[in-house]
From TrEMBL:
Keyword list, A-Z: Membrane, Transmembrane, Transmembrane helix
Name the UniProt record assigns to this protein: DUF1453 domain-containing protein
Domain of life: Bacteria
Keyword Membrane in record: yes
Amino acid sequence: MFMLQQIVLHTPWFVWGILALCIVMGVRQLHDQRQSRLRLMAVPAIWTAFGLWGMTSAFGLQPQTLAAWALGLGLVVAGLSQFAWPRGVRFDGATGLFHVPGSWVPMAMIMGIFMAKYIVGVSLAMAPQLAQLAPFGLGVSLLYGALSGLFIARANSVLRHGRAAVGGRATTLSL
């Protein structure tokens, strides 16, 4: 318990601000929303950048960690490409907006990235030599890529299935 207390006490103040922002963003996703195509694409771009920043801040821009990150992202996007999630997405052709039902899933995804970044940061603060261990760096990079892939896969699903519901042309994100 003492170690956990020390970890919390030594966490920089801005991290708690980021956590608060993550919670606010996640809570907003609990309610039905009307989103433009640009907003649907901006959210995964932001969270993908956050995950990539987490990887590069921990391990630098090493080819093997970048490849692991890309592999995690690609596997998740490809693996989830056929799923319609969230369910109930509709596209309003008159306004050009997508109706996206509220869900806890985005909150879980947001908190997953935050917690992964926090746990890796604490681990590296306590044992900096971990950054030099290939299995640790590759595993964390793969995780960050997979979490980022969730956001891209979800946005692709909304874009694809929302437009398909009205017979429109499918549009998906690509890197």
